[in-house]
């Protein structure tokens, strides 16, 4: 469950093996879970997370997420030495354990279905989101044709119209709204005229 699992520890931290990752490649989203974690935004929460990692001998993290997740990872990395010192001072770990786990290595990967990060062709999550959208569009198109109706489909993309644009192009949509290009005045008449054609 992301940082929540890191803070809570226990059964949330376990080794992945062949059986636990079998038959998941076709699933959208993350099978290991994801959660916003208020506790991790505090030093006390990060101290608990450090304790849980050290307990398992983990000093390498791969963080997939957006701005919040990657900012949290950077803060965690910068505080790591101080967190271990505090754990030693409180008697939760020994000096030897602290020395053995003195360095935290982090790899940060952008996870965003919006594909809104420069320097990469496609961010993690975009491809599976597009596949899901196209599956839905294929199903809806059949229904729309048989009922001779117009269907409106809303896709995700808070401030980024990438998913809408690409799925609109792929499906031959007649009308498209994206946040980067808000409709001009009178768009309703233009849309009705276009749909009427």
Automatic annotation (TrEMBL):
It catalyses: beta-D-fructose 6-phosphate + ATP = beta-D-fructose 1,6-bisphosphate + ADP + H(+). Keywords: Cytoplasm, Glycolysis, Kinase, Magnesium, Metal-binding, Transferase. Transmembrane segments: none annotated. One of its GO terms (cellular component) is membrane. GO terms for molecular function: 6-phosphofructokinase activity; AMP binding; ATP binding; fructose-6-phosphate binding; identical protein binding; metal ion binding; monosaccharide binding. Residues 1-184 form the Phosphofructokinase domain. It comes from the Eukaryota. The keyword GTP-binding does not apply. Its cofactor is Mg(2+). Pathway: Carbohydrate degradation; glycolysis; D-glyceraldehyde 3-phosphate and glycerone phosphate from D-glucose: step 3/4. PANTHER family: ATP-DEPENDENT 6-PHOSPHOFRUCTOKINASE, LIVER TYPE (PTHR13697:SF14), PHOSPHOFRUCTOKINASE (PTHR13697). This is PFKAL protein. The gene is Pfkl_1.
């Amino acid at each position: 469950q992301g940082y929540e699992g890191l803070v809570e520890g226990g059964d949330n931290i376990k080794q992945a093996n062949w059986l636990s990752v079998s038959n998941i490649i076709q699933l959208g989203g993350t099978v290991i879970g994801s959660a916003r974690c208020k506790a991790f935004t505090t030093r006390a929460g990060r101290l608990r997370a450090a304790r849980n990692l050290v307990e398992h001998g983990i000093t390498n993290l791969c963080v997939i997420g957006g701005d919040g997740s990657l900012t949290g990872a950077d803060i965690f990395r910068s505080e790591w030495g101080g967190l271990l010192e505090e754990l030693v001072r409180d008697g939760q770990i020994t000096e030897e354990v602290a020395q053995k786990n003195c360095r935290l290595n982090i790899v940060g990967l952008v996870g965003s279905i919006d594909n809104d990060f420069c320097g990469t062709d496609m961010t993690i999550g975009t491809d599976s989101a597009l596949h899901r959208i196209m599956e839905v569009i294929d199903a809806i198109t059949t229904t729309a044709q048989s009922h001779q109706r117009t269907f409106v489909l809303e896709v995700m993309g808070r401030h980024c119209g990438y998913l809408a644009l690409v799925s609109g192009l792929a499906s031959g949509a007649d009308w498209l709204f994206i946040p980067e290009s808000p409709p001009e005045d009178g768009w309703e008449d233009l849309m009705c005229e276009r749909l009427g054609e």
